[in-house]
Amino acid sequence: MVGLGGLYVAQSVIGSMIFAGLPAVMRQSGASLNEIAFTLLAVLPWSFKFLWAPAVERFRSPQDGVRRSRLTVAIVGAVSVSAVAAFALIGPGALAPLAAAMMLASFASATIDIACDGHAVETLAERDRSWGNAAQVGGAYLGSALGGGVFLVLIDHMGWRDAGLVMAGALVALALPFLLTPDGARPARADRPRPSLKRAFQRPDVRFGLMLVAVYVFGQKWAMTLIGPFLIDSGLSLTAIGTINGVGVTALGVLGALGGGYLVRRHGPFSIMTRTLGAQIAAMLALAAIAYFQVTSPYVLLPTVLASAVMFALGFVALYTELMGRASLDQAGVDFTLFQSADAIVSLIGWQLAATVGEALGYAACFVAAGVFGLAALALMPILSRNALVHTEARS
């Protein structure tokens, strides 16, 4: 669990540097929301990593049953660290080469995630999956504290290059627990079929999981990428935002992830997803009111952002616990990667639309739209819950 957690933190460091740290730096330098949205193209490897997931799974878990999870992470991890070092040396002013370094780092991180998730599904017993996803979501928040919080503070005090090189060193340290821990995965079936996307799409569990992701993620993530620029435009400094992300959001996010691990085991995934979606809608509408009335007090902004963070963490522990149970042990990395790619694709669509709406109509309209989409997702949750029960009974 510690090894998996370290990898999840490392992956989130890279993502947060790109999706939280860089947009705030660019906004402070005068970039438009559309220019900031351009950097989000680096999410494309996360959106389409399912295309090379079968090849990664065939290398990581070959037919002879000998796992290569650690070898896969070591090889691709070296590429990832090198890309982050290049990211640091290029600097935020050269957009084209910076985008290339970001894309390479994102590609390597997404590839590691295929191996990491496949290993997690194989290793964790069903009763422990909620805790595994708590480690995943909690690790994401800790990574966000580093990539979207500490990174910004270091930029303010050390400059872009040195701050980026510190992050590259942190990635190496975070990967060591996984690389040095014995493999605890179950032995693979010798007669299992060859991992493929075709086989994944043929499974009803996978098709249902993709539908669930599309509904829930669009309801949750619509305006998340604009919160950093919104706080900048509200007068907060990079250090202030970094402190909020690094201390408040992280502490409550990790608490929410751990609480999610317990609550999902007790109440079930759909109960938690429904409740947290309702709370997230309230947070988005509160942000809309704050933006409309131009409230800049940190005593108003801070509780709203923190409440959104803890609900986000709880909800995604529940979502990924449900999805992990629908991945086949014969090709865990492929099935779970499909779910995560769907998450990334829906997120990218939402972020691009949010940037367009935010640039044209302002933050208030964007946050209202987030609340409306959340309400639509909330209305569909009872139907999805009933369908989930039908799929589970059919599988049994």
TrEMBL record:
Q: Report the GO molecular function annotations.
A: transmembrane transporter activity
CC annotations in GO: membrane
User: Which Gene3D superfamilies does this entry report, sorted A to Z?
Assistant: MFS general substrate transporter like domains
Q: Does the keyword Transmembrane apply?
A: yes
Subcellular localization is given as: Membrane
Provide an example Pfam family for this protein: MFS_1
Q: Which UniProt keywords apply?
A: Membrane, Transmembrane, Transmembrane helix, Transport
Entry keyword S-adenosyl-L-methionine: no
- InterPro entries, from UniProt? AmpG_permease/AT-1, MFS, MFS_trans_sf
Which SUPFAM superfamilies does the record match to this protein? Answer: MFS general substrate transporter
- Which branch of life, at top level? Bacteria
For this protein, the parts annotated as crossing the membrane are: 7-26, 32-51, 71-90, 96-116, 137-159, 165-185, 206-232, 238-264, 276-293, 299-320, 360-381
Membrane topology note: Multi-pass membrane protein
* Family statement: Belongs to the major facilitator superfamily.
Under which name does UniProt file this protein?
A: MFS transporter
